[in-house]
Design goal:
The chain is 40% helix and 16% strand. It has eight helices and eight strands; from the N terminus they run H-E-E-E-H-H-H-H-E-E-E-H-E-E-H-H.
């Protein structure tokens, strides 16, 4: 009988990679009565720390962010459980969610993610000049009125579509504030638009706080200063009617 090394290349048993072994064990734990399928795993240069899993020709094809290539094994195990659980619509164990979030919230990892987004990410930014309102003019007025002109220069843009799911957001990686175009209308009170922009400007002043596996987007200081905006309650009521 010939040794394994003497067999033709096509007949040799392929040794699974370390990542494949991790995903195989996760699959067995989540679906103990189902035969383990073949995994095809690759690290890909995504613009963010994204991970995807799909079924292709009875194989499970996994794409992992290349930033996870050197991630600790327990983190990779948690990612495997999360992806497989989502694929088969199973509950995700809390400990794996916490493990992965804790990893993402590490300062070194956060800095790498932000640098990655700046280099690879494409932020499609429009113009601050709308049909009825100019975001740059309002930003400068609010900066002087409420921030003593101390906020740095930020890219401003109306959204490309009439976005309703996201009325506004601040992208720290690209230092950009985007406001939904639904507010660029003559019937929208200027004070409502000012409040929306003021809220996003507070995100510039008070960055996200990372603690363990948690992220705090609106700190007590953020909320306290937000309520100082004149017409705060009126703006909240108007937003609820949208």
């Amino acid at each position: 009988m010939g040794r394994r090394s003497d067999l033709p290349a096509g007949e040799r048993e392929r040794i699974p990679s370390a990542e494949e072994i991790v995903f195989q064990k996760a699959f067995q734990a989540l679906r103990p009565r189902t035969p383990v399928p073949e995994f095809v795993i690759a690290f890909r240069p995504y613009a963010d720390i994204n991970n995807v899993i799909r079924i292709r020709e009875e194989k499970l094809v996994v794409g992992l962010s290349d930033m996870l290539r050197d991630a600790p094994r327990p983190v990779l195990e948690s990612i495997a459980v999360i992806l497989i659980a989502k694929l088969y619509r199973k509950p995700i164990p809390a400990r794996h969610q916490m493990q992965y979030r804790r990893f993402l919230n590490r300062r070194s990892v956060r800095h790498r993610i932000q640098a990655l987004r700046q280099v690879r990410g494409r932020k499609q930014v429009g113009t601050p000049q709308g049909e009825h309102y100019n975001l740059e003019e309002i930003f400068e007025e609010l900066n002087q009125r409420y921030f003593e002109g101390r906020l740095p220069k930020i890219r401003l843009s109306w959204s490309r579509t009439l976005a309703r799911a996201s009325l506004g957001h601040y992208d720290a990686a690209h230092k950009t504030i985007v406001i939904s175009r639904i507010f660029d209308r003559p019937q929208v009170p200027r004070t409502l638009l000012e409040y929306l922009l003021y809220h996003e400007m507070l995100h510039v002043k008070y960055p996200v706080i990372h603690r363990g596996a948690r992220r705090c987007f609106h700190s007590p200081l953020f909320r306290q200063e937000e309520r100082l905006f004149p017409g705060y309650r009126e703006a909240q009521s108007l937003l609820e009617t949208l």
